[in-house]
Structure formats: C-alpha cells, structure tokens
Amino acid sequence: MSTDTHPTTEARRAAARVPLVEGQGLLSRFMGWYSRRTYGDVLDNGLAMLHNKPVLWAVLKFEGKVAKWDKLDPDLKALAQLGSASVIGCSWCMDFGYYATHAQGLDTSKLSEVPLWRESTVFTKLERQVLEYSEAMSVTPLEVTDEMTEALRAELGEDGFVELTMMIAVENERSRFNSALGLTSQGFKDSCELSPR
After folding, report:
1. Are residues 58 and 79 in the same domain?
2. Domain identity same for 136 and 171
3. What is the domain extent for residue 101?
4. Tens digits of residue pLDDT in 97-131
5. d(C-alpha 192, C-alpha 70), whole Å
6. Model's pTM, two decimal places?
7. What's the start-to-end Cα distance of the chain, in Å?
8. Which residues contact 3 (CB under 8 A, 6 or more apart)?
9. Under 8 Å CB-to-CB from 129, ≥6 apart: which residues?
10. How many domains does the chain have?
C-alpha cells in the first residue's frame, strides 16, 4: 500500500470517529483472521461495527444474502454501487468496490470513469442510465423521475429493476455509514484512481 495515495493505518484509525481496535475478544480475533485471509487487511468498517455486535451480526447476515442476488448483470451492479459511493463521497467504498469487482473477475476498465460518467465516452446507453439512476437515488432530495425508471424497467425487467434499486439503496447505507464514521480508503486498489467526485 502506498502511503502517498492512502493514509497509513495509524492515520486512518486516528481519523475514524470511533476507535478501530482489533484483537479484543474472540469475535474480533476471528474477524481479523478472516478479513486478512479474504481481503488482505482487516476491514475498518468491521472494526467499527465491533462496538455493537448485534449490528455487526445483522449486517453480516444481510450482506451474505445481498451477495446471492442474481437478477441484475454483475457489471451493472458494480457500476451502480460505485456511482452511488462516488456521489456520497465514500473513498472507502470506492476503493473496496474496485477490489470487490476485480476479485469477482468482472470488468474494471470503466470504473475509473465512474466519477466523471457524464463526460466519459466509455459507457453504453444502459450503463449511463444505471449511473444516472444511482446518482439520482443518492442525492438528497432524490432526483428520480418516472422517465428514468420506465426506461430502466424496460431494459432490465421488473426483477432486475427492483434489484438495481435495492442495490443502490444498500450502497447508500454502506457509504453513509462509512463516511459518517470518517472511514477512508484502505488501499485495496494500490493506486486508487477512484476518488469521489
């Protein structure tokens, strides 16, 4: 991890709005072992949630179920999530989203363009519609229109559209939690080009 691009572990933990301490208790040690084995580092948001174990367990169960949703193209799902994280300004989610997309073997070539999708020429019409919708769902107040939802329903079907909508809502929850707690990029993508807009 380059300290030129990403804060050091000490700086990240000092910036967090709750202590990010690992190794205290069996659950914390297990989470540290699992995270390092799976992701190469202990997830800062997991350390934050250790302060309230029922919250941690609920999120782990829910995320396990979210990972099984399969009515939406995985590349579109990744774009929607990163589009939402970009609008909210969650560098942790942008960084981890790139990592997760890469780890799933999906196309990462367009991800660096997500924060500037309106000016970019790399996205298809459908991808642009997904990014527009993720942006409209992630601002306050919402800017979702009947026209954009009708176009997406026609392209994705009812089941795909509902999954897209919920996936953006889930990313809003993740990004807002991480951002509110002061969590920043951990360097999952060594030279993270995915800075929030």
Report:
1. no
2. yes
3. 74-178
4. 999 998 888 889 999 999 999 999 999 999 999 99
5. 28
6. 0.91
7. 22
8. none
9. 148, 151, 152, 155
10. 2
